[in-house]
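From the pipeline queue, job 12 of 40. The input is one protein chain; the requested action is below.

Action: predict structure.
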Amino acid sequence: MRNGKVRVLSVFGTRPEAIKMCPVVHELQRRSDEFESLVCITSQHQQMLRQVLDVFDVRPDFDLDVMKHNQTLFDITASVLIGMKGVYETCLPDIALVHGDTTTAMSASLAGFYCGVPVGHVEAGLRTNDKRQPFPEEVNRRLADAVCDLHFAPTDTNRRALLAEGISEGGIIVTGNTVVDALLSVVDRTRETPPELPGLEDVDWSLRTILVTCHRRESFGRQLEQICEALTTIVTEFPDVNIVYPIHKNPNVLGPMTAMLGSKSRVHLCEPLSYLPFVSVMDRCTMVLTDSGGVQEEAPSLDKPVVVMRNKTERGEAVETGAVILAGTDTDRIVGEVRRLLVDSAAYQRMASAANPYGDGKASRRIADALWRVYGQAS
């Protein structure tokens, strides 16, 4: 501690991490009598990351700027690991915070361990128990949890997973997920002043609209083709349905998706949306088809049914409550689940009204409270 304050370094590098960590940064800044808040971005994502920082008005103190064209996991891991050594040695935090399951989170955690800096893992304990699904995220989060000192678990399911792996119960705090904090902080803004939706000017919003996000590495190739076939079948069978699909810029996604869907009627492809436009589309849509992790948590907060196009999910709580369906990547299965929701209003309503198990919008406050108990009051 310095001047009675706990110095906290928040480290993140991708758009999803930024969305979920900016509420924590805001809470630490709000409690400036208790915390000195510093932010380090790795720029594992660059443009999309900056858009989120602008939305939440967060300014980084350090930027590793690791992103480069056609970067590999080897590049990211090595650059973050080496870069974080210098950051830790420069700012000497009382604790660093990392988030989730990215290569940034894993590498920054390991660097903290090497440097003797305590690390807290926000969104700890999510598991599919298959090290290759999702890849590399399942291993990233397991490695981060193994070296971290505090584990901020969104749900009790995550807490139990950590305990089963030998993590000390005293180091686990169940907080809810900070993505709910972020969403609730901006959704009213998008309703009062709807943001522009670049690339989606021609969408007929009077039609039922399905929001699609799809980008996972394990789906590259034939599984992406099956997803494209499912989307084509859906718009062909239902003439009152739009598909809005902000396509990830990874060429393994952009190429095949554009080739297979670019000419389809009522399939609206656009570049990745910044956070406020994305929240606005999610709020206006009928349902969501996704392979994203964060969207599985966000959409139920807006009462939107979610069909997950993955074979396994580390977010099984919403499957259990009925807010999410795990459909895999099989064309017929995806079409069947979407068809059921489009034609059966009772089934749709059951999903739309299912409880969201991911929190009440107060996760950031619980994280700050725990940090002060451990590193403030205990000093």
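Job complete. The domain at 6-176+362-377 is CATH 3.40.50.2000 (Rossmann fold).
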